[in-house]
Amino acid sequence: MPELPEVETVRRGLSPLFEGAVIERVTLARQALRYPFPERFAERLGGRRVLGLGRRSKYLLFELEGDETLLAHLGMSGSFRIEAAGDATGTPGGFALARSRDPRHDHVRFDLRGGAAVVYNDPRRFGFMDLLSREGLERNPRLRDLGVEPTSNLFSAATLAAFADRRTPLKAALLDQTVVTGLGNIYVAEALWRAGLDPRRPAAVLADAAVAEALAAAIRAVIAEAVEAGGSSLRDHMRTDGTLGYFQHRFAVYDREGEPCRRPGCGGTVTRLRQAGRSTFFCPSCQR
User: Fold this and answer.
1) What residues contact residue 104 under an 8 Å CB cut-off, 6+ apart?
2) Distance between CA 124 and CA 91 in Å, rounded?
3) pLDDT tens digits, residue range 99-118?
4) Alpha-carbon distance 252 to 271, whole Å?
5) For the chain, first and last CA: distance in Å?
6) Side-chain half-sphere CA neighbours of 222 within 13 A
7) Which is more confidently placed, 279 or 238?
8) Which residues are catalytic?
9) What is the dihedral of CA 1, 56, 53, 2, to 10 degrees?
10) Buried-exposed string 254-278: b where 16+ CB fall within 10 A, e elsewhere
11) Measuring CA to CA, which residue among 194, 193, 163, 199 is closest to residue 178?
């Protein structure tokens, strides 16, 4: 599933096209993705201007003229493909295998005034779209319990102090979206390596201000670098311009089981273990 950096690169790729544009019409190839489309979905979007394109955690938020916001989630394999004058020009997002362009999986088409179009393609159909009232956006069940964005100025070592009374492992705690939202398996593994912290340690270690500050700095850095690199191109995610993200080439531990640790002078070997049904990669020599 795409993580925050991948979704942010999708947002950045789509923004120049969508912001200020009028959606002439929406064409649906089916009545549901992961969930059914809202009632009169295509009709409610037709003729509406997009005022802005934002992101909350892993959700894309298209602010529409009027009182509604289009919420979109990519699920496991969703992507947006930009077409101009009928020619495919790219797939926004930072995703190590190419995103699907099989027309059999084109489920939603947005035709924009001026001739450009954006097609949503999703082979697994785990993505979804919804129309929400802007007035009640933050109270919506999908958004109301989300924590602080790791890219926000509000995120700091103090944010991580919320885990100080927990005995759950660090890795599991950091995946709690109600405290820090948008962090997933890949970037948690990379941030813990940078901070030199064993993912099996109890989250209570974050009661130590120095440890919390080191981890907060590592999270900020790894997310910023991944966004700049265009994401990790894991599975079948791709950037909006059709190129792949490159952050996966900088992975220190993720998906590098049995390889030498990249920390200078460490000499350890990357190990994989299972935590709560997910693969965890770390170096037992330098992560303590």
Assistant:
1) none
2) 17
3) 567 889 999 999 999 999 99
4) 12
5) 28
6) 30
7) 279
8) 2-3, 58, 278
9) -10
10) bbbeeeebbbeeeeeebbeeebeee
11) 163
Average pLDDT, whole number, for the chain?
Answer: 89
Chain region(s) in the chain for CATH 1.10.8.50? 157-282
44-55 tens-digit pLDDT: 999 999 999 999
**Are β-strands 68-73 and 79-84 bridged in parallel, bridged antiparallel, or unpaired?**
unpaired
Residues 232-241: tens digit of each pLDDT? 443 333 444 4
Q: Per-residue confidence at 96, pLDDT binned at 50, 70, 90? A: very low
* Residue of 130, 131, 161, 135 whose CA lies nearest to 148: 161
How many beta carbons lie within 10 A of that of residue 216, not counting itself?
Answer: 22
Q: What is d(CA 108, CA 129) in angstroms, rounded to the nearest whole number?
A: 10
Phi, psi of 121 (to 5 degrees): -120, 135
Encoded tokens for 199: 């993912």
Q: What is the pLDDT of residue 242?
A: 45
Assess whether pLDDT exceeds 80 at residue 34.
yes
Fold of 4-139: N-terminal domain of MutM-like DNA repair proteins (3.20.190)
d(CA 126, CA 142): 15
Residues comprising the chain, all counted? 288
CATH number of 157-282: 1.10.8.50
Q: What is the share, in percent, of the chain residues with pLDDT greater than 70? A: 88
